[in-house]
Amino acid sequence: MVTEIDDFETHSRLRVDRILGGEDKGVAEAELRGTSSTSTEVTPPAEIRVKPNDSRERGAMEQNSVEATKPVLIPGPDHSITINRNPNRVVVSVDGLVIADTVNALTLREAGYPAVQYIPREDVRMELLERSDRQTYCPYKGDCSYFSIANGDERLVNAVWSYEMPFPAVSEISGYLAFYRDRFDFFEDGRASSR
Description:
The protein has helices spanning 13-20, 25-33, 55-68; strands at 2-5, 47-50, 81-85, 90-94, 97-102, 106-110, 116-120, 129-138, 142-151, 154-162, 176-179, 185-188, 191-193. By secondary structure, the protein is of the alpha+beta class. The protein has 2 domains: 2-68, no CATH class; 81-193, Metal Binding Protein, Guanine Nucleotide Exchange Factor, Chain A, CATH 2.170.150.
């Protein structure tokens, strides 16, 4: 049985206390269901669902419900993911403007995709990045946030991404940023890296 409460705030603390551990649990449960009961026998409800009382709460509850249904997959033989420290200095630039310069890059190789360089935030000129509204989801890595770069009049929209709270299997990339290879110039140890 599901009991819905239209506005939890309107129910007295006494009724909640009774449900959660007071002496009159059976009476409180009957009151919540709208049935009369004089029995003190305790039969806890299967579920109590609080109905949101405004659209903001409703949206947050719906978002949590959607997030709860996202698939989470573990890398394995059919979809491998490896993360290794890149021993080279990696420089990322656009039109001669250096965006990132590091000796601490991580190289992520996933299944049949091209390798991706993940660069620590402390080695990225974060003042050049603007967080965008774009967000995506990877069942192997988690929720992904995007950044755009303003370079004079040119804007590289959603050109940088980050898994800020990645799944445990790829936790090493937390705090790192990745750049689309087709939008930037990459140099490793002074040599141009292929796009």
